[in-house]
Specification:
The complex is a heterotrimer of chains A (297), B (516) and C (345).
Chain A: H1 2-30, H2 38-56, H3 59-83, H4 88-111, E1 116-118, H5 139-143, H6 148-166, H7 168-178, H8 180-185, H9 190-216, E2 219-221, H10 228-238, H11 243-263, H12 269-296
Antiparallel strand pairs in A: 1-2
Chain B: E1 10-19, E2 23-33, E3 38-42, H1 49-56, E4 64-69, E5 72-74, H2 79-84, E6 87-90, H3 102-107, H4 121-135, H5 150-163, E7 168-172, H6 182-195, E8 199-204, H7 207-213, E9 216-221, E10 224-230, H8 235-243, E11 261-271, E12 277-287, E13 290-295, H9 302-310, E14 317-322, E15 325-326, H10 332-336, E16 339-342, H11 357-361, H12 365-368, E17 373-374, E18 379-380, H13 382-395, H14 412-424, E19 430-434, H15 442-457, E20 461-465, H16 469-475, E21 478-483, E22 486-492, H17 498-507
Parallel strand pairs in B: 3-8, 3-9, 6-7, 7-8, 13-20, 13-21, 16-19, 19-20
Antiparallel strand pairs in B: 1-2, 1-4, 4-5, 9-10, 11-12, 11-14, 14-15, 17-18, 21-22
Helix pairs in contact in B: 14-15
Chain C: H1 2-26, H2 30-42, H3 45-71, H4 78-95, H5 100-129, H6 133-153, E1 177-178, E2 181-182, H7 184-201, H8 203-213, H9 215-220, H10 225-250, H11 263-273, H12 278-302, H13 307-344
Helix pairs in contact in C: 1-13, 2-3, 2-12, 3-7, 3-10, 3-11, 3-12, 4-5, 4-6, 4-10, 4-11, 5-6, 5-10, 7-8, 7-10, 8-10, 11-12, 11-13, 12-13
Classes of the chains: A mainly alpha (297), B alpha/beta (516), C mainly alpha (345).
Chain lengths: 297, 516, 345
């Protein structure tokens, strides 16, 4: 039983950074932007989260810095792909490499180390123990006690769903993705919407990055986003952007992460690390074969 | 049709517009529009009609000139600005969001909201319904735009502008997407709006319609303003102004001896991935020396017919054959040995616009003709390709510079000539043409028709898909009508009329009231 | 062509200026830094040959990406294909014992095979299951990373070593060096010539090119899109695998953790900034090698950390690519203004 609880908790924890980033990506996906730079945004925000937390001894500052870092990346993305009309794909990949280089460089310059920076004085984001819920047997152990950002993630899912499907902004957002010309001639600048969405994506990726370095573990290591940005992107494509679908897929990936940890008793750690990526391939297979079946009948 | 004589509502003065790098779309054009009139802008494709109206609507910026609105100079910075000042445009390609409903499309950009920015759906639907009733359109606000007819979609576009209290309506080739039966309905609505004080500006190159509907007509030719006349002029006068010379309107076809059956479709049926039936029991033949035309409102199976003949999709039942060879399941290269194909959209299907003209020309030839291969089919002979390009240029009078220049540098008419040249020089027994003259000017259209008739004289079998009934009646021998995936008529062209075909296109059966 | 050259040089110049600004702000001396950078890559025969050797994986992975992107498949799997090629070549180098004249070609073929198998896997997933190669190649990168890590830590682990690596491959598989000049450069040049020949002269190259520009047009014209797709995936995988094999055979002669560093991602970037042009990829590959080789010397002289070059590289890419688009828009605007003036006279 405790294994199951551990597994479920691990699933929720593993899902959170993917969920947050994927929600951000969903926003831009609806508007027709494929934000490949999420990997880089998460990395940069993970780094800045540690800086904020370390130098100001406060996890709140860490989160704020993380969001700011991601917003800077977002602004660069907007400058190139919206203003200068550079291909989003190229901008995204170049930004990812920029993020890798810049964080590795700054890691050396600011903290004087290579590889990773860990220090007991980095303040991590606290876990929340919900007063009444925590005492419910079994369920309480699963629902309560998670990191703050896990609950933020849940709220973000609800808010995104509302925003995209119920509000005026959401109507315009989806229109921008369906037919930007139509939106433009309706008197709404689609570039405007795109800009707001990329910034929003930045905020969410900022939270995801903060979770990576201040919630999940408390350190920054080179290239710590390790492909989670790509998995988020895959998640968005698989569920066609629906926020609740994103939540489900994120849980599945989180589960595969936890499952991998479990398997470490039996297999070398390298194979267990592969699990999330193999899981993504499997999910893509299911998605594609569903599409394929429709086509062949 | 009496209009109050007053100072012009809109004056466009000395408008100049250049498209990069040096295409002069509008050359010192001056024209004025009066309040409450229906004013047509006519000219060939490329004359500048659309561009002029897009400038008025602030979709394009002019490079010189000024616009006066109610005698005041104005400078709209965006289409939203133009709309706010009462000027709106309905485009030729429907610019709606198919996945949204009618009401969502109408209110987009001007949505009624509650607190938190939540969309007030109920109020939105009610307001849209109000406008529908006010102008007497026949629309269901909650219908999905992708499910309604093109004519209805056009009404949604108009409604969208009326919702914003637009008083000047610009319509760009509004009849291009309608059947002959739907056109009078549109004209009635436009007249009603004009009687109510709205000003209608509409772009067209269909002279009959223009004469039937408008109060005044302005003619543009190659970016220059030729003149403004009133509706008492004649079709021949207008055509002369448009083209600059006499234009013949009668049929070019001479009778021709048909030969063997070349192409056969036998009980072809196809349904798509969503199990929607797109083709039902399609059977017909095309003989050598014959042009068979297929008429129909777009979306009634033409797409699936063409794609299944080409090999992009496979019908679940039935078969196609060319010269008795079954091609229903053959791969595309096999089919290409026997057929030439001029696709509907030259940019997305008929060419690679960024590639050089020569590379566009040698496609398919590179596989079928040893002339272009060296080293046993491994290497391309670029010298031969260059020679071939010259040959095509001379034979088809293509106006081009070097064949190594990008395809997109050619004008639309010349691009189509290149594609025709490529396909016709394959010397295939069967030729499939899909909207071959769409978007071309009168001169190019004449040329293409000449080439198609020449192929007919060479005893090739030609299948022509066209939404232009004038074209079909000019050159086809027989006309078939596609309606909801079924062939509902197969008539020799002398035994039918534009009205009969139009009715068949819309209703799928003969009109009992008119004797056949 | 001329426009591209101007655009490239201008972009590099702007990026270097931006870098100089950052350096000044941080208290470094930009002029000396750049001088050291170019001195330590082009300044002597030794640095020049080192630069050439370093350019081999950059250019080969760059060619892999350029050819793939220009022909249609979005092959982002060069990092994984590189590793698998290196691994297969290493295994061959450990267990085969042939005279050099046979050994070296054998290992080269194994390297290409390794890369092609890995890319072929993604290709099959696309052809059989319609799985987008964009995602599959990315996932396979991570999987290859972990797989090779396991391989060099367990079955092929050098038990005398204290960190994950394989034993050295047989000496007959070591690529010969003549003075400081490494023969891997010759292999790279040969590969370049082959790729150039295929793309500019052959029927296949023509079909791939047109398919990459407009696949429907190519398909309707009779090109066999699926077969071509697979060929491109296999060839580009082989190129990336070759890069991996050459790095092992020319450099450490064994597979160690961290082999290949960032070469493959740099290769992808090079393809982008070269706009998928084959010759441009070669030139930019050389240039990026100049930056990377010089970075070590730069750090010695002015203490600017070598990671700074990673940042400069991505800025160069961004500026050049953005400039390319903007330049075109600017030229058009000027042309329009000129013509409008003409007409009004």
């Amino acid at each position: 039983m405790s294994i199951l609880i551990g597994l479920l908790n691990g699933m929720i924890t593993g899902a959170t950074p993917i969920l947050l980033a994927a929600l951000g990506g969903t926003m831009t996906y609806y508007a027709g932007i494929f934000n490949i730079a999420m990997e880089g945004m998460m990395l940069v925000s993970a780094f800045f989260a540690v800086i904020g937390s370390y130098y100001y001894q406060s996890w709140i500052v860490g989160i704020v810095f993380a969001i700011l870092g991601a917003l800077v990346m977002a602004l660069i993305f907007i400058l190139f792909s919206v203003k200068l009309k550079t291909d989003e794909f190229i901008t995204g990949i170049a930004l990812n490499l920029f993020a890798l280089g810049a964080t590795t460089y700054m890691l050396r310059q600011i903290f004087g180390v290579k590889g990773a920076f860990a220090d007991p004085s980095i303040v991590s984001i606290p876990n929340i123990s919900i007063p009444v819920v925590r005492d419910i047997p079994v369920l309480g152990q699963i629902v309560s006690g998670h990191n703050l950002l896990v609950y933020v993630g849940l709220l973000a899912t609800i808010a995104s769903s509302f925003l995209v499907f119920k509000t005026r902004f959401g109507l315009r957002l989806r229109a921008a993705g369906y037919n930007a010309d139509c939106l433009n001639t309706s008197g709404v600048q689609s570039d405007h919407i795109r800009t707001v969405l990329v910034l929003l994506c930045g905020v969410l990726c900022g939270l995801a990055g903060a979770f990576l370095s201040l919630g999940y573990v408390t350190l920054f290591s080179e290239n710590m986003s390790a492909g989670k940005g790509w998995i988020s992107l895959a998640a968005i494509i698989l569920v066609n952007g629906n926020p609740w679908g994103i939540a489900l897929i994120s849980l599945i990936f989180g589960f595969s992460d936890g499952f991998g940890l479990l398997l470490q008793q039996y297999l070398p750690s390298q194979f267990t690390s592969m699990v999330p990526y193999i899981a993504t391939l499997f999910a893509l297979f299911i998605y594609s074969s569903r599409k394929r079946k429709e086509f062949l009948s | 049709m009496n209009r109050p004589i007053s100072a012009p509502l809109i004056e466009m003065q000395h408008i100049v517009k250049v498209f990069p790098p040096d295409v002069v779309a509008l050359n010192d054009v001056t024209v004025d529009f009066k309040q409450g009139e229906i004013h047509a802008i006519v000219g060939e494709n490329g004359a500048g009609k659309s561009t002029l109206m897009k400038i008025l609507y602030a979709m394009e910026a002019m490079d010189a000139g000024q616009i006066l609105y109610r005698q005041q100079p104005v400078d709209f910075i965006s289409t939203g600005d133009a709309i706010a000042n009462g000027i709106g445009m309905v485009h030729q390609e429907i610019l709606l969001i198919p996945e949204y409903s009618v009401w969502q499309n109408v209110i987009l950009g001007l949505e009624p909201v509650n607190k938190f920015g939540k969309l007030d759906e109920k109020r939105a639907i009610a307001e849209v319904q109000k406008k529908i009733d006010e102008f007497g359109f026949n629309l269901d606000p909650q219908a999905m735009v992708k499910d309604i007819s093109v004519a209805a979609q056009q009404k949604v576009e108009i409604l969208k502008l009326l919702y914003r209290n637009v008083s000047v309506l610009i319509m760009d080739e509004p009849t291009a997407v309608l059947t002959p039966q739907e056109i009078p309905q549109l004209f009635n609505e436009l007249r009603r709006l004009s009687d109510n004080g709205h000003t209608i500006l509409f772009i067209s190159h269909h002279l009959d319609e223009v004469l039937a509907l408008s109060d005044r007509i302005t003619v543009l030719r190659r970016g220059k303003m030729i003149g403004t006349v009133d509706s008492h002029t004649t079709k021949e006068e207008l055509a002369k102004m448009m083209v600059g010379r006499e234009v013949i309107f009668t049929s070019l076809r001479q009778p021709n001896q048909h030969g063997q059956v070349v192409f056969q479709a036998e009980h072809v049926a196809y349904h798509d991935a969503d199990r929607v039936v797109r083709l039902q029991d399609i059977s017909f033949q095309v003989s050598s020396g014959e042009i068979v035309g297929i008429a129909g409102v777009e979306g009634n199976g033409q797409f699936e017919l063409v794609n299944s003949i080409m090999g992009l999709i496979t019908p679940q039942q039935g078969y196609y054959s060319i010269n008795k060879k079954d091609i229903t399941h053959a791969d595309i290269l096999e089919r290409r040995r026997l057929l030439s194909y001029v696709p509907q959209d030259r940019k997305t299907m008929g060419s690679s616009v960024t590639a050089p003209i020569a590379e566009n020309l040698v496609m398919t030839h590179h596989k079928l003709e040893p002339r272009f291969q060296k080293w046993n089919g491994f290497i391309l002979d670029f010298k031969e390709i260059s020679k071939f390009a010259q040959e095509i240029r001379d034979r088809f009078s293509v106006s081009m510079g070097s064949p190594d220049v990008a395809f997109q540098s050619l004008s639309g008419g010349n691009q189509q000539k290149v594609i025709l040249g490529r396909e016709l020089s394959l010397n295939s027994p069967f030729v499939l043409l899909d909207q071959p003259t769409r978007g071309l000017d009168v001169g190019s259209i004449e040329y293409v028709h000449e080439q198609i008739l020449a192929m007919r004289s060479q005893q090739r079998a030609i299948l022509l898909i066209s939404s232009d009934l004038d074209e079909l009646f000019r050159i086809a021998d027989r006309i078939l009508v596609l309606h909801r995936g079924k062939l509902v008529a197969d008539l020799p062209v002398e035994k039918t009329s534009v009205e009969e075909i139009g009715y068949l296109m819309l209703e799928g059966k003969f009109n009992e009231k008119q004797p056949h | 062509m001329k426009n591209n050259l101007i655009n490239g040089l201008l972009g590099i110049f702007i990026a270097l200026m931006l870098g100089a600004i950052v350096m000044v702000v941080q208290g470094y001396a930009p002029f000396e830094t750049y001088a050291a950078l170019f001195n330590y890559s082009l300044g002597s025969f030794f640095t020049f040959t080192t630069m050439l050797q370093n350019s081999v994986p950059l250019i080969l992975t760059g060619l892999s990406a350029s050819l793939a992107f220009a022909s249609g498949p979005v092959n982002l799997g060069q990092p994984g294909q590189f590793l698998m090629g290196a691994l297969l070549a290493t295994i061959g180098g450990l267990y085969l014992d042939l005279p050099p004249v046979l050994m070296i070609p054998a290992l080269i073929l194994l390297a290409m095979l390794g890369g092609a198998l890995w890319s072929g896997l993604a290709g099959l997933m696309r052809l059989w299951f319609k799985m987008d190669e964009f995602i599959t190649t990315l996932m396979l990168n991570m999987i290859a990373d972990f797989f090779t890590y396991w391989a060099i830590s367990y079955p092929f682990f050098d038990k005398t070593a204290y960190s994950p690596m394989t034993p050295a491959i047989n000496v007959s598989g070591w690529l010969p060096e003549w003075g400081d000049f490494n023969s891997s450069v010759i292999v790279m040049v040969l590969a370049f010539i082959v790729v150039w020949f295929i793309t500019s002269k052959t029927v296949a190259g023509y079909e791939w090119r047109i398919s990459g520009q407009n696949s429907i047009f190519a398909r309707l014209g009779g090109c066999q899109i699926e077969k071509n797709y697979m060929k491109v995936m296999l060839l580009t995988g082989a190129l990336a695998g070759l890069a991996g094999g050459l790095v092992v055979m020319a450099g450490p002669h064994r597979f160690l953790k961290g082999l290949g560093a960032n070469y493959a991602w740099d290769g992808i970037m090079i393809a982008m900034v070269a706009n998928n042009g084959i010759v441009a990829t070669l030139l930019y590959g050389l240039f990026f090698s100049v930056l990377q080789t010089g970075a070590i010397g730069m750090e010695l002289i002015t203490a600017v950390p070598r990671e700074f070059i990673m940042v400069i590289q991505s800025v160069i890419v961004l500026v050049i690519v953005a400039g390319r688009g903007y330049f075109a828009i600017l030229m058009n605007k000027l042309a329009v203004r000129r013509k409008a003036k003409e007409e009004l006279k």
